[in-house]
Amino acid sequence: MIPRPFAYHAPDSIAGVVALLIDYGDQAKLLAGGHSLLPMMKLRFAAPEHLIDLGRVKELRGIDMVGDELRIGAMTTEREVVASPLLAEHLPLLVETARQIADPQVRSKGTIGGDISHGDPGNDHPAVMLALGAHFLLVGPRGERLVPANEFFLGTYATALEPDEVMTQIRITRPAAGSGTCYAKLKRKTGDYATAAAAVVLRMENGVCAAAAIALTNVAPTAIALEADLVGHPLDDAAIAEAGRRATEACDPAADLRGDEEYKRAMAGQMVQRALRTALARCAG
Amino acid sequence: MAKKTAVSFRLNGTAVDVLVESRELLIHTLREKLATTGPHIGCETSHCGACTVDLDGLSVKSCTVLTVQCEDSDVLTIEGFAKGGQLHALQEAFMQEHGLQCGFCTPGMITRAYRLLQEIPDPTEEDIRYWMSGNLCRCTGYQNIVKAVQYAARKLRGEAVETSHPMMAEVTV
Amino acid sequence: MNEISPDLGRLERLEGIGCARKRREDPRFIQGRGTYVDDIHLPGMLFGAMVRSPYAHARIKSIDTTRAKALPGVHAVLTAEDLKPLKLHWMPTLAGDVQAVLADGKVSFQNQEVAFVVAEDRYVAADAAELVEVEYEELPSVVDPFKAMLPDAPVIREDLAGKDVGAHGARRHHNHIFNWQIGDRDRTDRAFDAAAVTVKQDMLYPRVHPCPLETCGAVASYDAVRGDLTVWITSQAPHVVRTVVGLLSTIPESKIRIISPDIGGGFGNKVGVYPGYVTAIVASIVLGRPVKWIESRNENLTTTAFARDYWMTGELAADQDGRIKALRVNVTADHGAFDACADPTKWPAGMFHVCTGSYDIANAHVSVDGVYTNKFPGGVAYRCSFRVTEAVYLIERMIDVLAQKLGLDKAEIRLRNFIAKDKFPYHSALGLDYDSGDYAPALQKVLKAVDYDGLRAEQAAKRADPNAPTLMGIGITTFTEIVGAGPSKNCDILGIGMFDSCEIRVHPDGSAIARMGTISQGQGHQTTYAQIIATEAGIPASVIQVEEGDTSTAPYGLGTYGSRSTPVAGAAVARASHKIREKARKIAAHLLEVSPEDMEFDLDQFRVKGDPARAKSMKEIAWAAYNNVPEGMEMGLEAVDYYDPPNFTFPFGAYLAVVDITKATGEIKVRRFYALDDCGTRINPMIIEGQIHGGLTEGFAVAFGQELPYDEQGNVLGGTLMDYFLPTSMETPHWETDFTVTPSPHHPIGAKGVAESPHVGSIPCFSNAVVDAFAHLGVTHTGMPHNAYRTWQQLRDLNLAG
Amino acid sequence: MKITIDKSLDLPLHPALAWDMLNDIEGVAACLPGAKITERLDETHYKGTVSVKLGPATVTFKGNIEIAGADPVARQLHIIGTGSDAGGTSGASLDLHARVEAAEGGGSRLSGTSEVSVTGKVAAFGARLMNSVSEVLLQKFFANLGARAEALQGAPPAQSAAATMLEEETLDAAAAPVAVSAPPPSAAPAAETKLNVFALVWAVLRDFIANLFRRTKAT
Questions:
Q1: Partner-chain contact C130 D117, CB within 8 Å
Q2: Is B8 helix (H, G, I), strand (E, B) or coil?
Q3: pLDDT number for residue D153
Q4: Tell me, what DSSP letter sits at residue A199?
Q5: Which of D2, D121, D216 sits opposite C54 (nearest CB)?
Q6: Does domain C37-139+215-263+270-303 have CATH number 3.90.1170.50?
Q7: What is the 8-class DSSP label of residue C445?
Q8: Staple partner for A269: which of A184, A248, B41, C117, CB 3.0–4.6 Å?
């Protein structure tokens, strides 16, 4: 459990990061919180020649609100997400999600940007980003670009991030007033990946669903959005059950020690139902 | 031999300098170069928390931190808790509430609990179980660890403390 | 027990038996000043890393160490070829088999040790291990013990070709290790034939691992000038290690010093001798420098000593009222590629024959077959006495199966079958002599504490409601353990009887040092042994220094496992204390010029009978022992005791669990767990409670999550703490504890041992609760671990999953 | 861990040409990113390496390929491959039976049954089973197979889904029939893989390792 040797770089600006990426290309890896990359390096599955530590880039941190948009620096830690009063007020879904990630020490180091950029379908933020319609600000030698979450996750460990780009910010328009949200995660124990999890952002008007976004974690090669056709209907037991049924069909899980494909399909459905019920209870009106 | 980097940081309040390969993990530097063997290695995959140290005011698992990342940092380990021969309230609490058995997880457990009590001075049992869930213990079943953290919290708040295990409770005369 | 004094202050100062004494070992642990093996740093120390096989079964065609040796900082790369001239490429196991130290021509389990790299530090060692080039020719592997016994199964142990008789009798197949039987088969069969009711159930106790938080490791330091070998090692039995090292190396035991320093949990994992220890020792001898080897967590979980892997079939015969007439058990035991099972020599299935449990069963027969497979060796007692967890699981599950068949309440069937209090000492059908027990009051106390009738009523209401989101299960176990191995007439390891020892020296100032052949891995021996001495010899525990684990200072003992420290070494402590006390009596009599018979012991002094004002404190007596003893008496105040117990001890308990199962997901919540333990005399209630909490938590982990599954190719899955379930504070239930006291009649202070009961007793209790949740639907058994996935499959099969 | 993959595909290629293509092990190996034949020991034995890169992870296997049986009359091929990763901690083996049959319209049908087994660190740390090899990956594989067939034949594509996909890819393949640099960053698989025994191993392993890292990281 010892990594292979590498050269370590700790730039203090985004420009410095990009310059290093240009120099070293795919020989380099970006180090955010380290809780995904370092274990892979310790197992010697990953052996980058250059490691670019983002930890000293101050401009990658912090949580701001501009109009209705929350802007979260990519190096904001899960711990900071959990503790943010701004997020607690405007984006409690993110706080609820981060609270279910790993454990307190890992959340001290683990970052939201690292969680998203890794392209791991087991990570929790990607589904939440899909449900929230987030955008990611990517910076590289060709400048900045803003990529919507639904165009970002291409496959397992495959994202829209080019090898010479770095994710700098996550932008999320806060859900409309009165929305209810929930992240429901089934896991074997603290620190585990989801057996299945579902993120829901829901808005009701006069007892009828006005908006609903649902996305699933760890039941397909990437996080996936679920189209449940709930808008315009009351969210009764039958509608919730139907949404769950659709989730079981939409997902494409792979068996592991957490369960076989059948179980994971069923749990994807259950987590959708659980998240919908909770989100509904949290909706105003 | 691989190229090495000089790294300076403060360990339990004292400035230290080490020469390390960039791949060296903080837990190895602490244990093998700085004779700080309180933090232990239990899993190497950042599950067990035996290697927990306090890094710049955050609880971290030092098996998943590179020493080169610690330049100019403040590192606190279990060795930094007792002051002037006086045990820290948490140390006293773990002993009084029987919050340890083999002792292997204890340094990480106490170091984590220290940061928890900095952030939540009056935690409920539920709080403690949630915020201590990054530290595994194979011996105690956690129940007495929860009591120990509550004992320390009371003591740190200046309240009276008493062990849950009175010495003579089962001795009949 | 001693005469009782009204002087609570003096009692409190003694900190003797019964006190919740705070632990003496804690100050160093809470300050990070424990000394575990990996904390040992010696000048010039090198670091070893193991090269392991990716294949479960393969022939080694070649090993090329050239590139590894060429790496700067590498000092040696050892292979079997290097060990052969020293005859160290194979080593004896505790079970009478041999195990390859480094693979000799072929590997027989995944991650088997192939080469040992020694380098300047652990970083270089890891780099060099990757450079050792091994060419393998993969062979078909077999991981299922039943398939291993098919005629055309792969031959796992070519070294045993032609050996029809193993350490435990005849072998009937090339992958067969032994068949062991106990009990009267014919009588048992007849009882079954005649019985009104019989039940039969297959059950697998899956392969698990004790997984202490500290992995195994060693630092070996050979001093070529003095010819001395010192080894710091994670061992629960350092004296046994010394004997094994002596046998292997031909170095006299007097020149070998084995030190078990602080041990970060053992739970059975640290009983055996592992290849890493041996290679570290050889490397130190070869290189003349200290060599450290510390295994990784993955190595720990996949190479050093699994537990269980017992495939059991139980049968009970009973009358219509549920009174059990006979028990029949057949077991196929998967021992992996080498039989390194930790059992007394005579009993290859350990004390599995305690499987008649707490019940008065007149007829019983057990047959166990040990089988080789391409899996890592072990078969250790994971927080239990040898194979007792398996035995208790079997009987506690079977009695529930019988209750369901008869429609009897699961508490009632136990009450009908308990061995009555007046039948102790009780001779079981499988030949064990239970020392003492009082089972019914224990169970009744638990039922009352939890309002058992109320729980059953709640369960009935839930069952009647088809819309209830959860199923409710109530599990009961009333187990009897067998610990304290053991009488040398029955128990030995490598021919050495399983006695244990204590040596006490009282210094002139009245303080004392005591040393034992056991070694604490968290049990608090430093604290509790001193309490025994305090009560039995009248010396305050605060001035007693307890030392263990260093074979050069401690008397020979067989170590700490199988809850044997208190029953065996604890008895030696008491008896050595009594020897001190008897000498003190004579000195006191001499000082007071009365006859020893006129002296009576009073807590911490001897006083003249009928004249309590005339007394000599133990402190005064200790001083006199070094300057004023009766004529003809040796100076000094010391005692040694080697205790060979006349029998095992039989702790028991009654546990009750309530679980709620979410129908939609299979998630299980332990709502309540009530554990009543009877471990005889209670030495330190605080430590007992801590041990019970820990044992219950380990039992919870086994029941609900732990397993080391294999795929067909022999890959061991789940070998990290991501998959291998060690519950955190979040998952761990709240425990309620209670006790009764039924002392052991043959133990000097009546103590029985406690640390393993909660593990042994809780696991079937959890399983019984889970099965009970489904019992009204005809389910009699579900396999462990009861994780959500597996439980959901049960729900799905019953059309409950929604 | 072992997986059996059965697959068949119609090729717009005369069976004889298809058979030739199947046998051209060295030629096609060069087209596969990360794979190469390092040594040809004799007519039926090769040594080669395959690097599987997935996100931050790379695993390199090196091993031996043996043409255990080639029946040009029946157009049946039996290939056995064994290998291990560079650090000696994982092993992989492949047992492939392939056959070419004449299909309607002058084309041919290629069918293959392969058993792929992985042991050691890669298998032990990756619990997702190998039959999780996604349909997408196999489609890519067969698409590229078809692409190569077309390049050899120069014939219009047959009426199959795979062949439809080929149309655009054929252009790429024609433009750069042999040398392939780094794969494009997008999801487009164009000419990324070519038919050879490695392709199958690669396809399996990539998926396998993908799952592996999802589980071994630390959180």
A1: no
A2: strand
A3: 64
A4: E
A5: D121
A6: yes
A7: H
A8: A248
A151 lies in the same domain as A192: no
CB atoms D57 and A46 under 8 Å:
yes
| D187·A119 Cβ contact <8 A | no
Q: Which of A263, A273, A278 should we substitute to test contact with C (largest number of C Cβ atoms within 10 Å)?
A: A263
**Could you tell me the CATH number of the domain that includes residue A228?**
3.30.390.50
CATH number at residue A48: 3.30.43.10
ipTM of the complex: 0.93
Q: What are phi and psi of C316, to 5 degrees?
A: -125, 145
* Same fold: C8-34+500-643 with C383-429+437-482+648-797: yes
What per-residue confidence (pLDDT) applies to D67? 86
Q: Which residues of chain D have a Cβ shorter than 8 Å from any chain B Cβ? A: 216, 218-219
Q: pLDDT confidence of D146, banded at 50, 70, 90?
A: low
Q: State which residues form the domain around A220.
A: 180-282
Sheet holding C544-548, edge to edge: C544-548, C512-516, C500-506, C638-643
Residue type present at position C2: N
Q: Where are the domains of chain C?
A: 8-34+500-643, 37-139+215-263+270-303, 383-429+437-482+648-797
Query: Amino acid identity, residue C658?
Result: V
- CATH number for the region B5-80 comes to 3.10.20.30
Q: Look up the CATH architecture of domain C8-34+500-643.
A: 2-Layer Sandwich (3.30)
Instruction: Divide the 173 residues of chain B into consecutive groups of 10 and give the mean pLDDT of each group.
Output: 89 98 98 98 95 98 98 98 96 98 98 98 98 98 98 98 95 76
Chain C neighbors of A258, CB-CB under 8 A? 789
Distance in Å, alpha carbon of A266 to nearest chain C alpha carbon: 8
Q: Record the tokens describing residue A125, joined without a space.
A: 């933020």
Q: Does B58 touch chain A (CB under 8 A)?
A: yes
State which fold the C383-429+437-482+648-797 domain adopts: Aldehyde Oxidoreductase; domain 4 (3.30.365)
Q: Can you count the helices (H) and strands (E) in chain A?
A: 10, 14
Structure tokens at A14: 């985004």
Residue D90 sits in a domain of what CATH number?
Answer: 3.30.530.20
Tokens 């471990």 map to which residue?
C679
Q: Which residue in A192, A260, A270 is closest to C665 by CB distance?
A: A270
* Optimal mutation site among D117, D119, D121, D204, interface C, most CBs of chain C within 10 A: D119
> With an 8 Å Cβ cutoff, are B44 and A4 in contact?
no
How does DSSP classify residue C3?
P
- Identify from A40, A45, A105, A151 which residue to disrupt to test chain D contact, counting D C-beta atoms within 10 A and taking the largest count: A45
C-chain CB neighbours of D216 within 8 Å are 720, 722
D69 strand-pairing partners? D78
Q: Which residues of C touch B102 (CB under 8 A)?
A: 212-214, 262-265, 521-522
Look at domain B89-156 and name its CATH class. mainly alpha
Q: Is the pLDDT of residue C311 over 50?
A: yes
Please, which pLDDT band fits residue D32 given cuts at 50, 70 and 90?
low
Give the span between the Cα atoms of C437 and C653, in whole angstroms. Answer: 10
Q: What is the 3-state secondary structure (H, E, C) of C583-620?
A: HHHHHHHHHHCCCHHHEEEECCEEEECCEEEEEEEHHH
D200 is in which domain, residue-wise?
2-216
Question: Which are the catalytic amino acids of C?
Answer: 236, 383-384, 756
Is residue C148 within 8 A of residue C369, CB to CB? The reply is: no
Which residues are CB-neighbours of C528 under 8 A, at least 6 positions away?
Answer: C21, C566, C570, C683, C684, C687
Using the beta-carbon criterion (under 8 Å), do A257 and C788 form an inter-chain contact? Answer: no
Q: How many domains does chain A have?
A: 3
Cβ distance of A154 and D187 shorter than 8 Å: yes
Q: Name the minimum distance, in Å, from the CA of C133 to any CA of chain D.
A: 7
Residue C395 confidence (pLDDT): 98
Question: Taking the C-alpha atoms of C484, C486, C487 and C489 in order, what is their torsion angle to the nearest 10 degrees?
Answer: 160
